[in-house]
Amino acid sequence: MLRIRAHQRYAVRRVVAILRGERRLGSGLLVEISQEGCRIGCVMPADMFPEPIENGEVLVVAPEGADPFEARVRWSGNGTLGFRLVRAFHHHELDRLIRTCRGEFDTPEAREYGT
Questions:
Q1: What residues contact 36, with CB distance under 8 A and at least 6 apart?
Q2: How far is CA 33 from CA 24, 47, 49, 87, 97, in A?
Q3: DSSP letter assigned to residue 108
Q4: Band of the pLDDT at 47, cuts 50, 70, 90?
Q5: What is the per-residue pLDDT across 54-78, written as a single tens digit (0 to 9) for each?
Q6: What phi-psi label fits residue 68: left (phi over 0), alpha (psi between -120 and 50 degrees) or beta?
Q7: Given its phi and psi angles, is residue 75 left (phi above 0), alpha (psi -120 to 50 degrees) or beta?
Q8: What are the residues whose beta carbons fall under 8 Å from the beta carbon of 38, sequence distance 6 or more?
Q9: pLDDT above 70: residue 109
């Protein structure tokens, strides 16, 4: 099945914090980003009693080493969240985030993860 998308998606890999205002709801792995959306997998709650995340809710996504951004929850399921950004990235912002999430600016020691 061919699916036409409004914006190209880019595969990335970066740990993110998921926040409701200043409160940390959990963390996950940013695995896909586009100019207007993102997908976070491996979502883990911050504590033993997780707060529910509702579709339509605006949350803050804070990738390690990058500026946080606001995004609206579009869907959720099986430990994965799909978001639409509140404000679309400019091309230079998207490029910088992709490069950060792919480890381009990490120190060599930070890139020495699992085999």
A1: 6, 7, 84, 85, 88, 89
A2: 21, 26, 29, 13, 9
A3: G
A4: confident
A5: 999 999 999 999 999 999 999 999 9
A6: beta
A7: beta
A8: 30, 32, 61, 71, 82, 83, 85
A9: no
What's the Cα-to-Cα distance from 70 to each of 4, 21, 84, 113, rounded to whole Å? 25, 10, 9, 28
- Six token digits for residue 26: 């959990």
Least confident of 12-16, 80-84, 108-112: 108-112
Sign of CA dihedral 97, 34, 15, 60: positive
Number of H helices, E strands in the chain: 1, 6
Residues in the chain: 115
Report whether pLDDT(17) > 90. Answer: yes
Q: From 56, 47, 54, 57, select the one nearest 26 (Cα to Cα).
A: 47
Average confidence (pLDDT) over 35-47: 95
